[in-house]
Task: structure prediction
Amino acid sequence: MLKLFRFLKPYKSPVLGVLVLIFFQSISDLYLPTLMADIVDTGIVKGDINYIMQIGGLMLLVAAGGTFCAIWAGFLSAKTATGFGKDLRSKVFAHVQNFTLHEFDHISTPSLITRTTNDITQVQMVTLMMLRIFVSAPIMTVGGVIMAVSKDARLSWVLVVAVPVLAAAILIIVSRSIPLFKAMQAKIDKLNLVLRENLSGIRVIRAFNRIEYEHNRFNDANLDLTGTAIRVNRMMAVLMPIMMLVMNFTTIAIIWFGGIRIDSGDMQVGALMAFLQYAMQIMFSLLMVSFMFVMVPRASASAERINQVLDTAPKIKEPAQVKSAGSKRGFVEFKDVTFSYPGAEQPAISNISFSAGPGEVTAISGGTGSGKSTLINLILRFYDIDSGSILVDGVDVREMPQKSLRAKIGFVPQKAVLFTGSIADNIRFGKKEATDEEVRHAADTAQAAEFISEMKDGFAFVIAQGGTNVSGGQKQRLAIARALVRRPEIYIFDDSFSALDFKTDAKLRAALKRETANSTVLIVAQRASTVMDADRIIVLDEGQIVGVGSHKELLQTCEVYREIISSQLSEEEIA
Amino acid sequence: MSEVKREHRPFMGPGRGRGVGPGAGLSMMMPAEKAKDVKGTLKRLIGYLTPRKFQLVTVFSMAALSTIFSIFSPKIMGKATTKLFEGLMLKLRGVPGARVDFDFILHILLTLAALYVASAFFNYVQQFIMAGVAQKIVFDMRRDIDDKLSRLPLKFFDSRTHGEILSRVTNDVDNISSTLQQSLAQLFWAIVTLVGIIIMMLTISPLMTLISVVTLPLSLVATKATVSRSQKYFSEQWKDLGELNGHVEEMYTGHQVVKAFGHEGESINKFNAINERLYVASWKSQFISGIIMPLMNFISNIGYVFVCVVGGIFVTRKAIEIGDVQAFIQYSKQFTHPITQTANIANIIQSTVASAERVFELLDEVEEIPDRDDAKAIDFPKGRVEFQNVKFGYKEDVPLIDSMNIDVKQGQTIAIVGPTGAGKTTLVNLLMRFYEIGGGKITVDGVDIRDLRRGDLRSIFGMVLQDTWLFNGTIRDNIAYGRTGATDEEIVRSAKAAHADHFIRTLPDGYNTILNEEASNISQGQKQLLTIARAILADPAILILDEATSSVDTRTEVLIQKAMAALMRGRTSFVIAHRLSTIREADLILVMNHGSVIEKGSHKELLAQGGFYADLYNSQFTGASLEKEAV
Result:
């Protein structure tokens, strides 16, 4: 938590302002009872109405001043805390944008999302609370003690007893209930899990006729949660009455001992009344401080997670010396490339060598986990390799700026990701300044024009977040159009036709052929019809090349290839 | 002087959501959603409370007692102060033998102590009982929802996201729970306190009461003004926050694409733009909502000064006692709190009613047609299935299937073929009676499926679908799901038949391995083997299989094929087919597109027809001959 406060630096003066203002506000709050004491001890005792009116006016002024300070402090603290949140958010987001897939794999995407959104909001909230309450509580406590002692030092002994008792009571109850709260949260999660499983498995549950069984599972979780919730709330039920009792008995003690001191002439009635108010102020401040025990641990867990993100340095760095590609266009070459994911025992791909040039279609095939997608990700330099080298246009990808490397490539990922915005916006994601004509042409080639024209707003149709309002096949075609509009040197299709029906698939490939005639094309696919026509098929198995050649050649020589194909085609079709 | 009651709300809340101590005031600033039918919803909500009438009455009387006892104390304490002051004044005037009457004061203090203890005790008992009542009501509510969910047709689940349903059981029920636990008693407390204080003040001095109450309209106006202003910024803040979260989610999940297309810069720019808007809306909303406390304090201080001054003057004129002034100081300080709190709670209750309405909406959904009382049973199912003039459509005005007739004999295999998204699950939905047909009838072994109990009907079928559903439990339990009371031996036997035994034994805990929440500790193919084992254990007469094994490595796929073949032997099987061999050897092929069955027949017949199937077949399995057409 403290580590994050380095981002508060630009807010030094407002924070200072808050401290000063709250100090003055506390003084005004503390001064009021003293003035009241004056009314009683001087005004009433002497029957001086004028004096009472005067002091009354002064009290109003002091109260107004205090309010003014409080509002101004509120203004500064609101601006500081939300500004701090803004800076932090922006810093984290920009930092994450530099992350490579490494870091995304390491922390996991959902967790990164929570860290950028909820965690920062949490920290911002607590910062605001701190500026509002935790600053004023200690000032009030100390100020209250000073004023109380100045009113009557001997009577302050009552406080020396009462305050620790109150603190101990709070501590005991809170420390007992925190584990219960944690247990309750775990049980809520459990209940949600059962329910989620019930929803996602509804067909299976009903098919196997296990409704009763699921009922019992839910009931157990429900009962368990209810039991804990009752215990927690009963525990918390003790807190308020106990605190009230401690405070009220403190009051009684003050009146009793104060009365004795008044009787002996050591104290005045007004002073006693003021003392009572100070005692309450001290104890309330103490209560406020105890909030800290609840809020800060929660926020510091969030802060820790944020720090972890900020402390993670991207593994891939821009080259110190940039090499230019020269005049070569569209050449991809792997030279004895080996790569393992961090922490993996075995390399994901090893000793891969091949090259591809413009006008050629290279297909990469193999079973799941054979390393196809990994290989593709390496060309885009989403990961850095362990040994060997990958050359694009004759230059090692590690010696090129990442941006200019990726500018050469039109990439269609396995999972077609679209963004909120119109269809045209999504296609233009590939090339910002593409004309309407270019966008339409790309859509046409990707076999998307037909369904787009059937949509209500055509190219202006707005895709919802996560692309939930278009089908899987439509998403894939838009993702392909997005890559096509770039007219890149190198096309990479990572299993990008899987959601298309076979007819569309065939039409698309035919149209692509014309479009990509002068480019280098790399296709990852398992479907026989997709790979069959490639100039070169690379067959991967467990990260190694087990065959390179044309469809016909591989059928003769490569066992793995035959296995893949034969699961899809019948014997006579293969031949 | 003891304004102890001001923060009545247990400061930790039930540990979630709203109302953590001093921030609690914020909830009033946010615009609450409104229920459509407040009266009706409230009535039903009260329906949940009536079985616990007795406890609730106890709770409220305890709360009333606790409040009344604490309201009395300032007045009584004032008497002690008066006595002190009187003694002092006598002394000052030099009356001989004058001293403070400590016996009287002791008596008063003891009374006070008793009052305090009683008030605290009643407060504790009230909260203690309420904890039980509130949680049990919520328990009932959750149970009712779960019961209801089990009686709802599949139609309901298919037309809603899981998140939507989940949020009713969690967020909405939680909201109701904390309102019951805290806000209800607080509202009651606030009202009793307000009324009580006014009565107490009137008994002491009507004139002084008038002076204290002067500030009342002021605090009402101030509360209203700030609340209505801050609500605007709060809704803006929520909107911006939603937009920001959406952007973060998109950019992070689509990170690979953002990088591949070099869009990092634009993404950051957009983020910063939203972030800036969020910042403005949030500091404004925070600032305005933060004003209310100092403002209320100020108003209460104005009252305080008035009481001091006017009270002081009255005392000098002997119109009232000094102790009364002290009591008034306390009362007027307590005054503003119930008011802010009532405004706060009114808002909370509003959102609670909205939550309750959503829960009741769910409870009111149309249920499945109940099973017939005189339901028939098929003791030894053989597996003959007939469709007679079956009509069906998901929407009434969009018929998908119009008068379908098929006759499947025992042991036959029916292949269902079609492009992705062709609606192949429709058939599953009808066979298992997840959906009701619009006309005609479906019979199993000659019995209309509507004459069977749903449970009995479904136990005739075994289902292996592509989206393997496994739950958070051991592998053994997941397989045993297929049949209640299966022995260990039977479980292992079916795992062996499904070619799953081997991989299960390689896991660290074997059959006792617990599948984690996403079942990500075994591979997709292994999951499929487990669901096959489950179906084998269930030993159904009719099978529904999905052949798709898209994300499975070649070796596991071979195992799955073998396991499925073993499973299909001798059983009537409906197969959502992907493999040519299955399709060609099927007794009947149903070709589906856009949800309806467009062709049916054997492989040869359909090829001869030269329709959709022939087209599909050629494009899918011969790969050639399409180029011409596409160009």
In short: The longest strand of chain B covers residues 385-392. The CA atoms of residues 459 and 540 of chain B lie 7 Å apart. Residues 1-28, 623-631 of chain B have pLDDT under 50 and may be disordered. The two ends of chain B are 92 Å apart (CA to CA).
